[in-house]
Amino acid sequence: MRNKKRGNTMRIKLITDSTSDMPARYLKQYDIAVAPLSVHFGEETFKDDGSEMTSEEFFEKLRSSKNLPTTSQVSPGEFVRLYDEYLDDYDHIISIHLSSKLSGTYNAAHQAKEILSTDKIHVIDSKLVSFALGFAVIQGAKMIERAETVETVVDFLENAHDHMESIFIFDTLEYLLKGGRLSKTEAILGGLINIKPILTIKDGELKAIDKVRGRKKAIKYALGRIEERAGEIDPLEIAIYESDSSKMLEEIKEVIESKAAFEAMYESKIGIVVGTHAGPGCAAISYFKK
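Predicted structure:
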């Protein structure tokens, strides 16, 4: 991506990882590169890039699998090879990844930068995950298009987690508990009959913030928070995403479109790595707070 500032031409490459759950159309539109993590079903390994297993195929396999699949991060060597593709053609690389509290991917990216020994690479721990991360990356890409300096873009992406709120609505917390991404106490509270646990991302971790009874009340709760707290970016933009083909996302979208005035709505599907821990029946909303 070319950045023109005060008559100079600056080329900045954005790189993220596959847990950003960014659809191909956004990657192409904003010229973003992705480092894929992997999912392992026993001896079978699948890259989280859609080439070996689609999201739909994954959730079908997840439901029928007796054992929870495992995930693995991007290695430092893979990051070295990825960075090498762009170092000669770009003045800067901004490499932003899922929360370091959820994966070692950020640390692997940092190790790769040290191996290459260059100041052209800026590695960022987003303290976010899934399309919350992707949403932040899109905002960073638009800043580059507006010819913001690399320092300004890096500063925004390093602090985006402080200004963004994400609301996750789960049918079940079983997968988060099994994957060690949630405490047993929080999972038990969310396991009551027809209770929809509401989680958010805080300090790089998933935290329970409330629970409501039934899908409609969960959606109403989410809309209430949006109306009360959204508003940092003008015009208002929002990201909505889900783990599988549930009706919840369509219901959320309809309610938001009828009651909230957003300039742009970005949509995505949760990929196979995040889906391993989120499980089926998860829908989420991300937006920038006041």
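Summary: The chain has two domains: 2-36+74-161, 163-288.
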